[in-house]
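Problem 3 from the worked examples.
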Amino acid sequence: MRTAFLFISVLFLSVTCQSEVIQVGKNQRIATIRQALAQCHPGDTILVLRGIYKEGNLVVTKPVTLIGKDHPVLDGQLKYEILSIGGSHITLDGFTLQNSRFSSSNDYAAISITNGSDIIIKNNKINNAHFGIHVNNSSQCRIENNDIAGKAISEQESGNGIHLWKCQGVSIINNHITGHRDGIYFEFVSHSEIRNNLSEKNIRYGLHFMFSSYDLYYNNTFSNNGTGVAVMYSNHVTMYYNTFKKNWGSASYAILLKEISDSKICYNKFLSNTIALFLEGTSRMLIQRNLFRENGWAVRIQASCSDNSVLNNNFMSNTFDVSTNGSLVLNTFLNNFWDKYEGYDINKDGIGDVPYHPVSMYSMIVEENPNSLILLKSFLVSLLDKAEKAIPSLTPENLYDAKPMMKANPL
């Protein structure tokens, strides 16, 4: 065993000592990146100097590091996928990639990774690409500190900023994505994280997430996207400390949850969205210590949901705090702060002595007849809600917070 370890160590040191730095530039011995890729050896570093490189589709399969000095430009001329990566231990750092090929039938990208592992894509700028970074069947990749800006006009003719399919162990950290169909797209992705990203002004979703489990979203901002964020057909997903804001539209959500279970949504901020949180077919969700402020609907929870816990959240200045489409409610609301609560606290323990029913009669009417929203600010609506509080009839009796908080919860 010791002999084998020594042999591997010597071999590693030998390869390391033999690695070279190959400079690429107009006045260098090697003028093209393609030539450098052909001549390099595993472990080499290719240093690309400032300039515009129009070299078609570059294919990288050797374990090398490509570093751009002063952001050299790789231009696809709207004809080519710019960089195709396969293999392992490859790094791309400090380039500008622009004008990749567009297609309505093929997923051309500025950077495409297929069957890769231990790939690092960092500190790059991607402009006017069909897909920004497209990752297939890969693992242990890191996509960090990239600026990805598209010019999407319609869903049919645009791709996603960062697109992952059938991947695991991928970290997406501190990227800015804008102007694509979906900012970030996950499908069949597990044990991965999305952290510290800004996804804004994308046509469809800031984040689109399907058939993916055991993933973490942490400290991201999703803002001004077409229909917000969708998380569907997944389980064991953790969403902490994210901000969802200004996702406005007739069918726009901060988060749409569909057929998702055993997941957590905690410490998030939902600010000025049409619908902050929409749940359909969800179960065993923990929704705790979130701020819902100035949304149209804070929470819309369908009758198909069960065994979800909504605890210690703050509901402030929302048009509707909670709405539902059925009378049977199998979920728990407890210890939330509701700014519309008019109860009392005789024993001064900070908990209201009267349960709070957050579903208003008017919200039930709107659920059945959306056009009735035109009456939102009318005197008739206030009378309906007062009458429902006195003699409950339409609102679900078992959807209530038994211990509403008198003061906002610390978040």
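Problem 4, a separate protein:
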Amino acid sequence: MDAVKTRITKRAVDAIAVPADGEARIWDRDLKGFLLRVYPTGRKVYAVKCRVGRLQCFHTIGEHGSPWTPDEARKEAAETLRLARNGQDPGAKKKAAKAAFTVNDLIDRYLADGPATKPAKRASTWEIDASNLNRHIRPLLGRKMANAVSKTDAALAVRDIAKGKTAKDERTGPRGRARITGGEEVARRTRNVAAAMFAWGVEHGMCESNSFVAVKLPRAPVRERFLSEEEAERLLDPIAELQSFGEMSDVFADALRLLLLTGARKTEILGLRWSEVDADRKLLILPPERTKAGGKTGDRRIPLSPPALQIIEKRHEELELAAKVAAEDGNLAVRHQFVFPAARGEGHAIGLRRAFAKASAKAVLPGLRIHDLRHSFASFAIADGASLFLIGKLLGHASARTTERYTHLSGDPLQDAVNLIGRRIMGTAKGSEEIVRMEDK
């Protein structure tokens, strides 16, 4: 354990090296007992070493950053030492605050402060987490003290979500509506979000234990669907038909086609901005915050085939024409930043799932999900001879293990290798023709 003695200032805090393991400490030379603890994760925590009666202990003040600057932490340390000299427990105030801290308080703090402590997590994922916590955990456990949530409480909450206890249909505005469902999948997702929130609360001193991490659920069933070429045609035909009859907007029709042609995720395509389109290089270039693995892989580059590029160019021409017409009518409309703009307002289009459900029902493809278009793109690429490495690059996977789910679609390279060796060895042997015929079968 490395230890340095100096006055704890912002310059000293910024300068201290993060240890590879163990813990590094800065002891303040002016206020005896005041220190900064530095961990391999990069966390820097202010604390004070004090004696209460015969018991000597470390009292944690808080993590470096707002509100704990060196000066604020020094004031708190001085007050803690004063209480300790008078025989009072300096942790009593913090314990009382923890005891009154509810699950509702924890949800509020997690959603407000969590994004700053998890910069690699996408804004869209935070929105999904907020929905799960507000619509499922808050109604069931919100008023309960965070430290009083037992493993049984957590397990019963997850069970109730699975049974649909928190399901409801509610209005979200003059034209908005939210259908909140339950079921095993929702329960599993909410359990994971709640476990992450309580782990964050423990890390930041807001609660003492994480009951949700002990809740065990059956492994999620694999739901991978791969379209055949015939099924892909059956899906594209009703999209064109619905579009021609005005039952599906051009925006939704083109977005669905582009999903199938790129293997991109729904949010990557619907949120696509013109600034992310490089038509000259035939690429979509998405910044890290717009992709699931962006924190590990950086920018995501999605190559465009000629049909995909044609869709992008058509969208550009239609939006340019709309802007021209608006200008002729005296409207000073600014060209939309999104490739697939919303019918109203400045955001991107929403409601693609309903359009997709209508097309897949007309194509008689029950159970098909939008995400299955991504799986189908991968299966078509493998059928054309693409390696799993290339598939991973095309889909933007951060790990080769993620791509291994498509292994069963490709030929077995080990079997191919031994077949070639067998042919070479037995090629001139007597009876080899019969052996080769058996091998081919």
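Solution to problem 4. The first helix runs from residue 10 to 15. Residues 34 and 48 are 4 Å apart (CA to CA).
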